[in-house]
Amino acid sequence: MPVAAEKTNQQTQPPPAVKKTPAVQVSSRLQEAARLDSADVLRLMETSLEGLTSEVAAARLEQYGPNEVAREKRHGWLQRLYVAARNPLVILLTVLAIISFVAPEGDAITGAIMLVMVILGLSLRFIQETRADTAAAKLKAMIRVTATVVRDGQTKELPLQQLVPGDIVKLSAGDMVPGDVRLLSAKDLFVIQATLTGESLPVEKTEARELRENVFAIEHANLCFLGTSAESGSATAVIVATGSQTYFGKVAKSITGQQVETALKRGVKRFTWLMIRFMLVMVPLVFVINGVTKHDWHKAFFFSLAVAVGLTPEMLPMIVSVCLSKGALGMSKKKVIVKRLNSIQNFGAMNVLCTDKTGTLTLDHVILEIYCDVFKNENEEVLRDAYLISHFQTGLKNVLDRAVLQHQELHRELSLEKYTKVDEIPFDFSRRMMSVVVEGPGGERQLLTKGAPEAVFAKCTHFESEGEIFEMEPILVGNLIEQVNDLSEDGFRALAVATKKVEKRAAYSKADESDLVLTGYLAFLDPPKDTAAKAISVLRQHGVTVKVLTGDNDLITRKFCKEVGIHTEKVILGSQVESMSDSQLVEAVECTDVFARLSPSHKQRIVQALQRSGHVVGFMGDGINDAPALRAADVGISVDNAVDIAKESADVILLEKSLLVLEEGVLEGRKVFANILKYVRMGASSNFGNMFSVIGASAWLPYLPMQPLQILTNNLLYDFSQVPIPTDNVGPQQTAKPRPWHIGEIAKFIVFIGPISSIFDYTTYLVMWFIFKCNALGLLPPPDLLARFPATTDPNKTYAAALFSTGWFVESLMTQTLIIHVIRTNLIPFLQSRASWQLTLTTLLIMAFGAYLPYSPVASALGFVPLPLTFWPILLATLLCYVGLTQLIKMWLIKKAWV
Fold first, then answer.
1. Which pLDDT tens digit goes with each residue over 581-626?
2. Which of 45, 161, 383, 888 is a Cys-bridge partner for 166, taking CB atoms 3.0 to 4.6 Å apart?
3. Shortest CA distance to 96 belongs to which of 281, 279, 301, 308?
């Protein structure tokens, strides 16, 4: 026996006709095989019931390749390092460092500091992404099964990868179908096709030749496909297609590969190039201004080089990577595994979630909900008859039988040992019913039948109601059909039950299924999870609209969606999607939350239509039929027991198939984005303000406002202060609604917040210039510093220049480091909202270190001098005014709803 493929609770029924236009076409050879009889199929595949010889099989394996579907290749460490290193900011800093090393009279210390920045950001990003990639690789469950194959006239077990077209295979209950096959013989074979069609009940397969025209291959009763599995029965089949030539393989091949670029990646890229454009404008301007006003082009060059580094948000890749990795770790604790880190922001920005209903919103477990007479009154006798049928029928019980047999109390009440099975008339696809003949305690024999209502009706001449038998008059038949239709409209899968007393004889046949008495109906349902309605309500409160996209029956889907609180005023079918243009579909998806009888291509089109409307779309699915939509969505979500290709296609994998788990992941994604946005806002506004400060100082001062080494030191310390941003607390007001990446909001923030820092830079200039006399190049230093500042004609080497640059260095570092506490929240900092202890501690340490530097042993090497005591109260006032003004402008922007 083959190793059983991983079981799924999803069951299937014959797929709807809408599947006539699939995203991927099956091979013409498979279509041809369906229309031939068994002997001709064997000739077509150049094989026999004795199977292929080992030599022929080896030749075909060489010709067709291994029986594997397309998979994404895991990137090696060199490729991951290359991807991390090709970031524009990393390249820019590396180039500037090289220039510092090789330029005439270059500064090796400056170059070394630049390289430290590069290595710090690059190594942190590489390590975090490697950890995430390793965790994702461990999670991926690869399909590894064997199949029972006839080779050289003998039945043997072979790995799935070694099977070739022409192989004869044996199927039994629980086996995975090892390729696209044509059945040669079958006995009571039911196949689970949920991975291909998304349907909720099994479909019967037979070996009968296909005579219908214009029927999609999945509807052929004599074909089975790779990725499906046998639910019950047994069969012998010949493999027609393997690997990438199967339906499963073609879908897999069409969707594996490069992922769609996420909004976060696009946003970071746009922000990066915005900063680079700032730099391309400002650096040449600073170089020219300093060269012209100070007549020292060499110093002007290195100063402008340092300014370029100062304007570079070099920690952005690291901050983004650490935020995403921390978010992924937090989400894993909430049963959400992130495969692709960049998808986390999309997860938080998602405002539409498309999902199938089976297993996600439902229990993925069919139950017997109603057992009633023909007028829908509860009837224990109908349940008793159904129980006897399910108990005595041979073979593996299907999902509906198991639902009936859950009523264990009947086992005791009926005293089953008093009943004897006499004969069975098995189910077949043409009759759509089955019967058992039982002999009860009194020795009376009864034929008990169950099946599709319309099929059973045709065999009935009477019906029973409240213990009385009535003839099936034409006027009453319409009423009976209406009762069944009502059950279907209420979302139930209905079966009819009928009985007949029979005479004692040796055997019974299909001919005995006549003149039956209709006793009632069984109604089955895959009920909603207890948490479904709550989860949908909670997601709606968080700004996420749930839309159901299913291949299932529209009546069942409508009923179900009503129960869980999804709007069902309008339901769009796959056939309607097929007839719509892209523009019509864009309009339709805006006002529709339920879509039924969909093919894989329909799901993909709906996702793309929502994206064209400006939505950030998540798609949750677990079957091969979901894979194209998973790839098209901004964030693809699957579960850990999904088919392999669905997990390959997904960005996020849930360890629990529940929307409540999703809600936790969505909030975590929003926290991640909030922290990334803090750095982006901080870096962008700071750089925009510095642009005005540096240009003004360069034009006004007779010396460089800060030495290149001091600018780099300032930048390095500031970068260290931002490292704990990924650990920062995020308030509920920042996670209440989806937060897509809006470069326009960032631009407004830059324009209004950035110049505030320049205002206080200029007040510091004035304080240093007028109060501390830095306008006098002959300003004498304290006695203990006289040796450091001998008489010189170089303004940059005067005590006045050193004092000015020290004062601006300390003010600039402290304002930049402190202001993150204002920018990080929409509330009042320190009072209504406090940063994480890591960010608070780093802020205090960097500010303290900045204040200590002018008095430290390295002050001379960095060009610093001790600041007068009167500088510190002025600095304190500057900080308080800066924080206050920034808070006022921020609140004004929030009131205007601009940020």
1. 999 999 999 999 999 988 778 898 999 999 999 898 999 887 666 7
2. 45
3. 308
pLDDT of residue 89: 66
Identify the pLDDT of residue 71: 55
Residue that is written with structure tokens 């009759």 in the block: 431
The candidate with the shortest Cα–Cα distance to 437, out of 428, 426, 446, 427, is 446
Highest mean pLDDT among 115-119, 184-188, 385-389, 644-648: 385-389
pTM, entire model: 0.68
The values of phi and psi at residue 425, to 5°, are -110, 100
H or E segment and range at residue 493: strand 493-502
- How large is the average pLDDT for residues 333-338? 81
DSSP 812-832: HHHHHHHHHHHHT-SS-BTTT
Q: Whats the size of the chain, residue-wise?
A: 899
Residue 129 near residue 80, CB atoms below 8 Å: yes
Q: Which amino acid is present at 551?
A: G
Which entry of 107, 188, 356, 719 is annotated as an active-site residue? 356
* pLDDT tens-digit map of 8-23: 333 333 333 333 333 4
SS3 (DSSP) at 711: helix
pLDDT digits (tens, 9 = 90+) for 667-702: 888 888 888 888 888 877 887 888 788 888 888 888
Calculate mean pLDDT across residues 849-857: 95
Query: Which of helix, strand or coil describes residue 376?
Result: coil
Task: Please name the residue that has the structure tokens 């909001």.
Answer: 745
Q: What is the β-pairing status of strands 516-525 and 493-502?
A: antiparallel
Please provide residue 635's backbone torsions phi and psi, each rounded to the nearest 5 degrees.
-140, 120
DSSP code per residue over 139-206: H------EEEEEETTEEEEEEGGG--TT-EEEEETTPBP-SEEEEEEEEEEEEE-HHHH--SS-EEE-
Say if CB 399 and CB 368 are below 8 A apart. Answer: no
Residue by residue, DSSP assigns 623-646 as: SGGGHHHHHHSSEEEEETTS-HHH
Please name which of 498, 492, 493, 593 lies closest in space to residue 550, comparing C-alpha atoms: 593
* Greatest distance between any 2 Cα atoms in the chain: 129
Rg (the chain; Cα; Å)? 37
Q: Is 356 a catalytic residue?
A: yes
With beta carbons less than 8 A apart as the criterion, state whether 838 and 727 touch: yes
**CB-based contact 795:702 (threshold 8 Å):** yes
Amino acid sitting at position 85: A
